[in-house]
Write a structure and sequence with these properties.
Layout (H helix, E strand, L loop, with lengths): L2 E8 L9 H17 L4 E3 L17 H5 L12 H10 L2 E9 L5 E8 L5 E6 L19 H4 L9 E4 L2 E7 L6 H8 L5 E6 L13 H19 L2 E6 L2 E3 L2 E3 L4 E3 L5 E4 L6 E8 L4 H5 L4 H4 L6 H5 L12
Parallel strand pairs: 1-2, 2-3, 7-8, 8-9
Antiparallel strand pairs: 1-14, 3-4, 4-5, 6-7, 9-12, 10-11, 12-13
Helix pairs in contact: 1-3, 5-6
The structure holds 3-methyl-2-ureido-butyric acid.
């Protein structure tokens, strides 16, 4: 048995006016709860140091820059790192990263129990648009503020397990999980900020949107026989609701923990990394069963091309 007691630290809303210091204090409070519960790894949401700023259209470069972190850890997050290090609890969380070359990425990091950052992932699937869209009920400008991730889907050895990360929209793409699964990922951590309503389809219910999220995380877990920890930033941010429902999914695809509030809430589960072995050695033994000669389109073609040659 290779047990990791995982805390999924869902966070409630962060308003535009909230300071990073206030947010880090909330993260430390969740961390304290996790330490008391015996967690050895705590996962926080996507872009968890600020409000979900891509909903705001901004032209002023200084204003845009104010949402990004130039280094990690930094003065604001150091207290979180210090407290986690003292307790030897590894953490993973998302933030807006600005590189020394000035590029912006939607990033998630992973530490070991000594709080060394041993893994970094930059979101590959950026949803939304890059210019103001008057036809949407609200904006989703990730393509404006971030570049698509340039690190691929790396997997890291940490705490005697193989671990990978995805970020929000990535969870909807089977290719993303498979990239991790093909490297033997036993634990996939992801955070999300997902609006409760579809800005382009008011008919879609919140229940359907949560169903889509769960469906993807459960499928990704089952089809790669990996634990999936999916952590929401939830609640009403300046009039913009984000759905909650953070989950921990077992390697057989079943949900073993689910959040019940739309605020700061910790889910705790003892995750045995050896529980991934059965699926990886039987129905999803990739080496025995995959048929890559038939999968060429997956990497050679992006959009739909019908058999008659016309594009979808
Ligand atoms: N932060 C996100 O990536 N959100 C998207 C929304 C826009 C659909 C998501 O896939 O949840």
């Amino acid at each position: 048995m290779r047990e990791i007691v995982i805390g999924a630290a869902q966070m409630g809303p962060i308003q535009r006016a909230d300071s990073r210091e206030e947010v880090v204090a909330r993260m430390i409070a969740l961390l304290e709860e996790a330490i008391a519960a015996g967690c050895t790894l705590v996962v926080f949401p996507e872009l968890c140091l600020t409000t979900f700023f891509p909903r705001w259209y901004m032209e002023d470069t200084a204003e845009v820059a104010s949402w990004f972190e130039n280094s990690m850890p930094n003065a604001t997050t150091q207290p979180l790192f210090d407290r986690a290090r003292a307790a030897r609890v590894a953490i993973s969380f998302g933030y807006a990263e600005k590189t020394s070359e000035g590029q912006g990425f939607n990033t998630q990091v992973l530490t070991d129990p000594a709080l060394n950052i041993i893994g970094k992932y930059r979101k590959v699937h950026l949803p939304g648009h890059s210019e103001f869209d008057p036809d949407r009920a609200f904006q989703h400008l990730e393509k404006r503020y971030f570049k698509a991730g340039d690190l691929g889907f790396p997997v890291f050895r940490n705490m005697d397990a193989w671990m990978g990360m995805l970020i929000c929209n990535d969870r909807r793409w089977p290719e993303a999980y498979r990239e991790l699964g093909l490297q033997g990922a036993e634990l996939i951590m992801l955070g999300y900020n997902t609006p409760t309503t579809n800005s382009q389809n008011p008919e879609e219910t919140p229940e359907t949107r949560v169903f889509h999220s769960d469906l993807c995380c459960q499928a990704g877990a089952y089809q790669n026989s990996a634990w999936v920890v999916a952590v929401a930033k939830a609640g009403n941010e300046d009039g913009h609701p984000l759905f909650p429902g953070s989950i921990i999914v077992a390697p057989d695809g079943t949900i073993v923990q689910k959040a019940t509030t739309d605020g700061d809430e910790l889910l705790v589960h003892s995750c045995d990394m050896d529980a991934t072995k059965f699926g990886k050695k039987t129905i999803f033994d990739f080496k025995r069963h995959r048929q890559i000669k038939h999968y060429g389109r997956i990497t050679s073609q992006t959009g739909v091309i019908y058999p008659d040659g016309t594009e979808g």
